[in-house]
Amino acid sequence: MSQSVRVIWDDALVTYDFGPEHPLAPVRVELTMALARELGVLDRVEVTGCAPATDDDLALVHDRGYVEAVKRVSATGEPDLSAGLGTSDNPAFAGVHEASALIAGASLAAARAVWSGEVEHAVNVAGGLHHAMPAAASGFCVYNDPAVAIAWLLAQGAERVAYVDVDVHHGDGVQAMFYGDPRVLTISLHESPRTLFPGTGRPEETGADGTAVNVALPAGCGDSGWLRAFDAVVPPLLREFRPEVLVTQHGCDSHALDPLAHLMLSLDGQRTAYAALHRLAHETAGGRWIATGGGGYELVHVVPRAWTHLIAEVSGHPLDPATPTPESWQRLVRERTRESPPLTMTDGRHPEFRDLSAGYDPADPIDRAIMATRNAVFPLHGIDPLP
After folding, report:
1. In this structure, are residues 248 and 166 in contact, taking their beta carbons and an 8 Å threshold?
2. Does residue 208 lie in a domain region?
3. Alpha-carbon distance 58 to 66, whole Å?
4. Which CATH number covers residue 275?
5. In which pathway does it act (predicted)?
6. Which of 132, 213, 251, 324 could form a disulfide with 187 if both were Cys (CB 3.0 to 4.6 A apart)?
């Protein structure tokens, strides 16, 4: 299905590092790229570097005063709480501007490659820092690279951009930056704000003409319920909106092993979602697809396998889930983390779900979450919310 694919990578992307005790450990992307390389996934794509985002690039979505504050922190390593740097979530560190600007530059490089037609799909697994706000760092995120990429596309003349966020946490920063802009459809599927940071993402947050869409799922939701919710909301809206470009954020912290959240997806369920988004990119956006990473705090068993599957899916050559992980990669995992590595690319699950065509169960909390979203936004798009 894919024609040309670019993976944006620079070894310096691992310098986005909040310290050894922070859950967002850069080893997760190091192990991802090593696994993708050793399984031959990167042989099927073009891997290119990138330049840091400029101040003008960042100013597409961030206040210039905030960028200057981040630069001051970067030069000294001293906190600036007014900029959100120096908290337990977002520790200050020397070089934070350069590291953050490079991640934003990688997502910009992906956007440029897709918009220009150089490639059909592009991936930045180090990106997806969706919580950063216009004037403050938040939720482990300093610069909001998906929002920078979207704003750049709009500046080039794109009239409709869709953003689908499957991270377990609400994509609040991206939503906030485009909340009043009907050219950008943001869809976020996440754990309910009643039980998880950042406490936003309720169905009634509908933005301009229903272009902010939030599916708030109950804690404990697993593959079948999550995929049912995705199928009930995402395809109908993308088909109606018909974006010129699809941007997706693939935080894999919805996995049952993730230590910071409470959904129960498997690696196989996440892989199913990647395939669905690939099909939708071709069906609704002419194949123009920009994919980023995101959250994910089980550093060995989840993130590297999930995002290697993502790159493989984007390339058009998905991996057999039964594929063994290479022994050389297993040794690297032990050396870098002292943990036991996974032996195959699957959790051994075979996700299935029932769609809404046979109706919904008002006693089911997942169905209630689905219908709350459909009732809030489908009429604004001229779609019947009832199955």
Report:
1. yes
2. yes
3. 10
4. 3.40.800.20
5. Ketone degradation; acetoin degradation
6. 213
Question: For residue 387, is it within any domain?
Answer: no
85/272 Cα distance (integer angstroms): 36
CB–CB of 236/378 below 8 Å?
A: yes
The two beta strands, 46-48 and 121-124, are unpaired
Report the domain count for the chain: 1
Q: Which residue has the tokens 């941007």?
A: 247
**324 domain-assigned:** yes
Enter the tokens of residue 331: 């040794």
**Tokens linked to 49:** 């570097």
Q: What angle do CA 41, 53, 73 make, to 5 degrees?
A: 115
3-state secondary structure of 6: strand
Domain housing 47: 5-63+96-381
- Percentages of the chain per state (helix, strand, coil), in multiples of 5: 40, 15, 45
The one-letter amino acid code at 312 reads: A
Other beta carbons less than 10 A from residue 259's beta carbon: 9
Do the domain assignments include residue 223?
A: yes
Sequence-distant (≥ 6) Cβ neighbours of residue 102 within 8 angstroms: 10, 12, 13, 15, 16, 50, 52, 53
Q: What is the pTM of this model?
A: 0.98
213: helix, coil or strand? Answer: strand
Tokens of 231: 């199928």
Residue spans of beta strands (DSSP E) within the chain: 5-8, 46-48, 121-124, 161-165, 184-191, 212-217, 245-249, 289-292
Nearby residues of 76 by Cβ (< 8 Å), 6 or more positions away: 94
* CA-wise closest residue to 141 among 294, 270, 31, 30: 294
N-to-C CA span, the chain: 30
Residues forming the active site: 131
Q: pLDDT by residue (tens digit) across 236-277?
A: 999 999 999 999 999 999 999 999 999 999 999 999 999 999
Query: Please, which residues bridge with residue 283 across strands?
Result: none
